[in-house]
Amino acid sequence: MGRIVPELEDPNIRVIFVYSYRVIDEIAGEEIQIQTVIHGKRDLEKLFQH
Predict the structure, then answer these.
(1) Separation CA 40–CA 9 (nearest Å)
(2) Whether the predicted model's global pTM rises above the 0.90 cut
(3) Strand 3-4's sheet: what is its strand order?
(4) In sequence order, what are the beta bridge partners of 17?
(5) Where exactly are the structural domains of the chain?
(6) Which of 2, 8, 22, 29 is the S-S candidate for 16 at Cβ 3.0 to 4.6 Å?
């Protein structure tokens, strides 16, 4: 469910929007693992640079 995270360009990492938040999950085999919940205004690229 969701769409590919444009900043990461990985087809196994998806995002859905819930109100002002982005819920980012990863498809791992037959499981879906929530990776993070982040406010929509946060700069995701800057966050992953650290």
Answers:
(1) 18
(2) no
(3) 3-4, 13-18, 21-28, 31-39
(4) 22
(5) 3-49
(6) 2
DSSP class of residue 29? T
Tokens describing residue 43: 């700069």
pLDDT at residue number 47: 67
What's the CA gap between 33 and 3, in Å, rounded? 15
Q: Give me the pLDDT at residue 36, please.
A: 87
- The torsion angle over the Cα atoms of residues 45, 47, 49 and 50, rounded to 10 degrees, is 180
CA atoms within 13 A on the CB side of 25: 15
For 2-35, how does the pLDDT look when each residue is reduced to its tens digit (9 = 90+)?
Answer: 899 888 888 999 999 999 999 999 998 899 999 8
